[in-house]
Amino acid sequence: MTEQITRATFDEVMVPNYAPADIIPVSGKGSRLWDQQGKEYIDFAGGIAVTSLGHAHPVLVETMREQAGKLWHLSNVLTNEPALRLAKKLTQKTFADRVFLANSGAEANEAAFKLARRYAFDHYGPEKHEIISFYQSFHGRTLFTVTVGGQPKYREGFEPTPGGITHCEYNNIEQLKSLISDKTCAVVMEPIQGEGGIVPADENFIKQARELCDQHKALLVFDEVQSGVGRSGTLYAYQQTGIEPDILTTAKSLGNGFPVAAMLCTDKVAKSFSVGTHGTTYGGNPMAAAIAEAVIDIVDSEDVLEGVKKRHAMFVQALKEINDKYHVFKDIRGMGLLIGAEVVDELVGQAKQFLKHAIDEGLLVLVAGPNVVRFAPSLIIPEVDIKEGFTRFERAVSKVAGSM
């Protein structure tokens, strides 16, 4: 007899670094999920901006089946066709000349930060090693990436952390000017801060950051782990800014839930990752690459990207209409289908209450810090699911508002 699996099983066998909700989803289709009891949920969370094409997308299911019958894994002693096809498409569609394939956003960022330091070491020597990042940024959970990230809570208890990293206020160009120097090897930024509260970068700030990097011979690194692969309304958010980075990282939506990531860079920078300088066991495996290629083919189309813009307007309008009734949000912001609603002062620290009540109503949403409710649904979520989802969200909001 198969042992029954319940939420209590988590508390028995898993390391307690997560506190998952009481429900256990067991199946999904499109933007709807069903739990062990058969209760239906509409998915406005997207696995934290991951399932960009929803659950069990038929093209991706067939791609996985086809590749599974051919080749799962080799090693980086050999290359493979799906990895090369994916890399070629990524370079054709972006600023980049070269690609390093990995398994997660943290791995892609780890590679990016190492490459930035190695490039500076090769060209200017060991003194040019300093990295500037931004407060409230998030770049992953490895020791290097939590140090570059601008949230001290993720570093606490893991010190000593790598040195040579400074943090700046996001969108504060004068402070960035005061911090950058000829010892700076890289400025690392998200075009829109995700975990930091869904805060877009000012267009002028990005342009001046690029100019400062050029003046000081520093690399500009864009973390598009969360904003990339269509979520912003373009394939990558930087494509709306008029400037190009030297290095870009992408993951999350790239595999629609299958672990895959990539670091993209220019040819001149890539040369500093010569044979043996960096590596990964699973990065670039044919299964992951085949799925990511299929995702790119679907997402990078006019129908999907224009649809993201239309759905953005629907989400913002629905949130405003709900807020006009209940007055629980003081700001609604974001790009494409990465949207944040910041709670009013009376609800500071209580964003998770919206998540909790939404689950009770059959809806999955997210938070971005303690004060922002986050929405990151499938890029192709049906309009009927959006309307029904907000009907459920309004019921959740009414419960939160009733406790104010």
Strand order of the largest sheet: 4-12-11-10-7-5-6
Proportion of residues in helical segments: 25-40%
The low-confidence parts are none
- Tell me the total number of β-strands: 17
User: Could you state the order of secondary-structure elements as H and E?
Assistant: HEEEHHHEHEHEHEEEHEEEHHHEEHEEEH
Structural class based on helices, strands and sheet pairing: alpha/beta
Question: What is the alpha-carbon Rg in Å?
Answer: 21 Å
Number of domains: 2
Shape: globular
CATH architecture of the largest domain: 3-Layer(aba) Sandwich
CATH domain class name of the largest domain: Alpha Beta
Keywords for this entry:
404 residues, alpha/beta, Aspartate Aminotransferase, domain 1, Aspartate Aminotransferase, domain 2, 2 domains, seven-stranded mixed sheet, four-stranded mixed sheet, 13 helices, 18% strand, amino-acid biosynthesis, transferase, pyridoxal phosphate binding, N2-acetyl-L-ornithine:2-oxoglutarate 5-aminotransferase activity
Describe this structure in a few short sentences.
This protein has helices spanning 7-13, 46-49, 58-68, 81-93, 105-124, 143-148, 173-179, 203-215, 267-270, 286-299, 302-326, 351-360, 383-402, and strands at 25-29, 32-35, 40-43, 98-102, 130-134, 165-168, 184-189, 192-193, 199-200, 219-223, 247-250, 261-265, 329-335, 338-343, 363-364, 366-367, 372-375. The chain is α/β, with parallel strands linked by helices and 404 residues long.
